[in-house]
Amino acid sequence: MNLSRSLCRFVSITRKHLGRNLLLKGFPLSPAMAREGSTLQRDTGDEFLKEAFKIVMEEAVQNATDRNHKVCEWMEPEDLKRVLDLNLRSEGEPQDVLLGYCKDIIRLSVKTGHPRFFNQQFSGLDRHALTGRIISEALNTSQYTYEVAPVFVLMEDEVLRTMRSFVGWKAGDGIFCPGGSISNMCALNLARFQRFPQCKEKGLHALPRLVVFTSQESHYSIQKGAAFLGIGTDNVILVKTNDRGKMIPEDLDHKIQKVKSEGSVPFLVSTTCGTTVFGAFDPLEGIADVCERHSLWLHVDAAWGGSALLSSRHRHLLKGIERADSVTWNPHKLLGVGLQCSAFLLRDTTQLLERCHAANATYLFQTDKFYNLQYDTGDKSIQCGRRVDCLKLWLMWKALGSKGLETRVDRVLDHTRYLVEEMKRREGFRLIMEPEFVNLCFWYVPPSLRNKENSPDFWTRLGKVAPVIKERMMKKGSMMVGYQPHGNMVNFFRQIVVNPEVTKEDLDFFLDEIERLAEDL
Amino acid sequence: MNLSRSLCRFVSITRKHLGRNLLLKGFPLSPAMAREGSTLQRDTGDEFLKEAFKIVMEEAVQNATDRNHKVCEWMEPEDLKRVLDLNLRSEGEPQDVLLGYCKDIIRLSVKTGHPRFFNQQFSGLDRHALTGRIISEALNTSQYTYEVAPVFVLMEDEVLRTMRSFVGWKAGDGIFCPGGSISNMCALNLARFQRFPQCKEKGLHALPRLVVFTSQESHYSIQKGAAFLGIGTDNVILVKTNDRGKMIPEDLDHKIQKVKSEGSVPFLVSTTCGTTVFGAFDPLEGIADVCERHSLWLHVDAAWGGSALLSSRHRHLLKGIERADSVTWNPHKLLGVGLQCSAFLLRDTTQLLERCHAANATYLFQTDKFYNLQYDTGDKSIQCGRRVDCLKLWLMWKALGSKGLETRVDRVLDHTRYLVEEMKRREGFRLIMEPEFVNLCFWYVPPSLRNKENSPDFWTRLGKVAPVIKERMMKKGSMMVGYQPHGNMVNFFRQIVVNPEVTKEDLDFFLDEIERLAEDL
Lengths: 521, 521
Hints:
The structure is a homodimer.
Chain A: H1 3-23, H2 31-35, H3 42-62, H4 77-83, H5 95-107, E1 117-118, H6 127-139, H7 150-167, E2 173-177, H8 180-195, H9 199-202, E3 210-215, H10 221-228, E4 236-239, H11 249-261, E5 265-272, H12 284-294, E6 297-301, E7 326-329, E8 342-346, H13 352-357, H14 390-425, E9 429-431, E10 440-444, H15 458-463, H16 465-476, E11 480-486, E12 489-495, H17 504-517
Parallel strand pairs in A: 1-11, 3-4, 3-5, 5-6, 6-7
Antiparallel strand pairs in A: 2-8, 7-8, 9-10, 10-12, 11-12
Helix pairs in contact in A: 1-3, 3-5, 6-14, 7-14, 8-10, 11-12, 14-17
């Protein structure tokens, strides 16, 4: 470790720079300026950054995705507080201590890129995407004007255009939002604005009761959005789903009629392509018919399932999506480009997005600029400063091509299929349903509960199994997978395989490990 | 350049890996899996990442902050489109081509970390903060549960606690939001929920007309928020400001009384500490008195000015902030930790934030987890997946200490003061007002317009000066500074010096360069 040598260099460089600064002639150096010191200096900082990047490369990239290393290093919150010196104090700390913090932070964090992290709807660590993210961070600009983000204004436009073409639209609009929840909220806002443009100025107070429809399996952001946008969660009508978690168009139609008959005004149906728990796809064609009949905005929350559009084998899951008015699609989920990358896509070509969101701030969106103002796209957003979320996806897409992305999607579905077949062959694994997509929901029936389904406490006892297995896997650090109760179903696992580095051996390991962790249960 | 050697290694590694994959015995290899190929492979990707990091280090960190390099490389949108191959295609592209793209992207982007970038309320490239950002990107987790973000849940809590202590609160709550606009929207939502808890379920339809107050100098996010939250921009009452851009408490009191007399319900006053154009600070004590008298929620949008709290010399600007109910404070602005880092801080200790925003999704926030559930903080947010925004600030704070941050703030204010004095000594620079904070607003009167203030077209002609100077500086790439018209004032420059690397020589350069660029005007 040549850290101590580096640190000696830090000190000497610092002294030199400080000296040079002090010598600048005629400079009225305030005490504040004189105090500045080591941490400001470029060269010192660059050395630190290079040392830190080595640590990142070794610990957060290589080891963090290596099967010989743990997925997580479990520690109780109170213990973790004792181990980490989180306190922020008056004095700065030396470079070697800071590098130590970096190592500790990485070591004690969950390795979401690990091939045995199956816990969330994202995993993996695509090196091209990570490169795009590091460049975005280093350039640190805001995606609001061509003036400060020329490359990224054009790039966002190109990425959104390409994504729209996979939806099936030749034209349209869109914007990257900070996450799928906010994309979905934008859909609510646009649909409301299209129906009642006066809402922007007058607010909801002057309007009739507005109602939105979504399925009982939809993502909670529709509820959060209805609350945030002043619509109210009571005005989100939950449409029934069939036994596979898909919205029933007839029930939708029925509920729309009922709401209308009560004098309220339906304005949007939010469908889901890839529900959070079951990965179900709502039948878009049937729902689009209902929306057309009632002149309702059709939104498709394809945050999770949208990436299936890239696969000629699987895009049938989203049949009819081109009839939507708006689509949420998060490449940070299945495609693993890194949080956050959420595209909000629109079929509209009448500048609805900008008309709905614009505030025309003269200090950003001057009208007498020397270039074409159509490239100042920031006023389409509800944000002011907005991160560059397009580069990471663009660079990964350039590296893989649409075909490479398709391969990844197909591979994920192949892996799910493999797991299903294996589970059927093994005792103890009990599928909730045949998966339609990546979400593989199952109970694990441990040895003591097998063939006891008729005992009165079977389900109560089964419901306690998943939390115990989860606790054991996390304390061991061998893998991570999520579980939840759902409706009247007791706790079951939801297995998600999206990491492109996953192999069949990892899937076998997953099944074996569940068996091992539960062998005494 | 050893790129070609690296590329040879890419190819051989790729072949080796592909071979090994194909040989995995018993694996039902689908065509999709067989097609995978080069871009997935770990070692190849790691080589690419290392090469890319070298480029980032040299081009986006060192050269991008070097005075011998340009601030921007201006190109018309249509020209830039021709230069950059932005198209996304079916086939992936080779590693060397991708590295070339990375270089082009950096070269053609604006260097916001450059010591002569004065265009936005952020600048500089703190190496410790950048390290924190790169680690956050590599670990790629979501800040919603202790399960997947143990370190960052505790760290966010500590950073918010420390920020609250600078506000003057011993207890409270808070969360990082994707930007100040959304933080301000959260303030609107919380104030509304506190006053009318039923709004979450019932919506605004069932409520009286709600009204918020803010000054005419406030940020446009209050308008965007009112539109988005269904309150309506007409229900944002703009309070008058004095000649320094500060809200007049008497006018606020008067307008509140008027709104009440009309039967509407005021519920929030949004003050600003550091307005966008003038950098003005509203008089919080006087406004807090008015809010107390009328039982209104006091929000302080200190996105820009909040960092002055760190300075014992300058925190008087925010006198009375401890009386606020909520505060927005963006360390990504003055402290330069990188977009985005926006803290929404609350005085409340009754879990108002969680009660207002929670949706209690069972698949994330299981109630039978094996650890203390108070550490699953994600339901406080309107987002679901949420980026880790605390680490970059935490690491920079650890490096500099509160004292080091104070020094930076003081230095920024010293620089502004230096510029003011220099402008007074030079012909042509005409201050709009003595700055209270960092924003230094001025007209530059070029030689042809000097001593012609009484001519009828003076102001019209003066208004055309700033856009021309701006165009020239961008085409030359020498520096960047923003301008805008404001109220009845024609275009003027708003100079912002926040980059900690700026020296007196940069400030002299700035003044000289304006003179040079306008010498024929």
